[in-house]
Amino acid sequence: EEKKELPNSLSQNYPSIGRINEIRTETFGKLGLLEKEYPHEVIFPFETSHIHRFFDFTAFLQHLYNLQDDTKLPTTPELFRNINTVTFSPKEKKVYSTLVEHPTATTQQIGDLVNLSRHTVARMKKKFFEDGLLQTLILPNLKKIGIEILTFTHIRFNLNKAPSTQELAILNTPSTIFFASRKFEAVLLSAYQTFQDYKEDEMNKIRYLKENNLFSQPPFISTYMFDRMEVIKDFDFSRLVRKIIGTVQ
């Protein structure tokens, strides 16, 4: 099997994205982790994109364990759109970035790290959650629960027919763990227990897109086998947060 990479990045602006991609391409190229072609790149600015599912495994696990009717899937609230930026005080910056870096730490442990009382930390933490500045994200170990395949799908829609909300919802199957779209394109990350599950879901999506004249070309699909996959960087938003809000390690 060819070596492939599946990077996902968040950045403040296009110049930053460009620099990140150049560094990533050079690094992975030296490690022999790139195919002969230039990496497939897709950019989704939050202001002009819709995040339909952001690593929400609820529907995926309900389907996997037959817990409820899949026709009534929960939906992820609209994320990262029409949100006003906030200004942190120096203390809030310390607490916020430390909470992101140590999500399982107690308020006492966070307080010890930033030299504040646990009551102050608890009050700030509560406000961060109430204001939507933090949210809990629980990630199952997919390999340990028997998931074999992870796929990345990039769809370019027909330029003469942007998909409706209902049509996008059809693509948001239980296998989907991340789904973002713009007017004429979308990306999905999906997980499957078996190769047959993957092929059935893939063919159903392609058939639906074709029958409704929704794509301009066949979707780009890249597959990754868990038993052959190496996680180079796990979920970690701490460096990004520190860079954006201006704190130092």
Features:
globular; alpha+beta; 36% helix; 14% strand; Alpha-Beta Plaits; 249 residues; single chain; 5-stranded antiparallel β-sheet
Class computed from helices, strands and strand pairing: alpha+beta
The number of helical runs is: 8
Helix percent reads 25-40%
User: CATH topology of the largest domain, what is it called?
Assistant: Alpha-Beta Plaits
Any idea what the shape is? globular
CATH class of the largest domain: Alpha Beta
Give the second-level CATH assignment, the architecture of the largest domain: 2-Layer Sandwich
Mean pLDDT: 84
List segments where confidence is low: pLDDT < 50 over at least 5 consecutive residues: none
Largest beta sheet: strand ordering? 1-3-4-2-5
Question: Termini, distance in Å?
Answer: 39 Å
Oligomer: single chain
Number of distinct beta strands: 5
Structural domain count: 2
Largest sheet: 5 strands, antiparallel
Strand residues, percent: 5-15%
What Rg, in angstroms, do the CA atoms define? Answer: 20 Å
Order of helices and strands: HEHHHHEHEEHEH
Protein described:
- With 249 residues, the protein is of the alpha+beta class.
- The protein has 2 domains: 14-79 and 138-228, Alpha-Beta Plaits (2-Layer Sandwich), CATH 3.30.70; 90-137 and 235-245.
- It is 36% helix and 14% strand.
- The protein contains 8 helices and 5 strands, in the order αβααααβαββαβα.
- β3 and β4 (185-192) form a beta hairpin.
- The chain is globular and about 60 Å long.
- The mean pLDDT is 84.
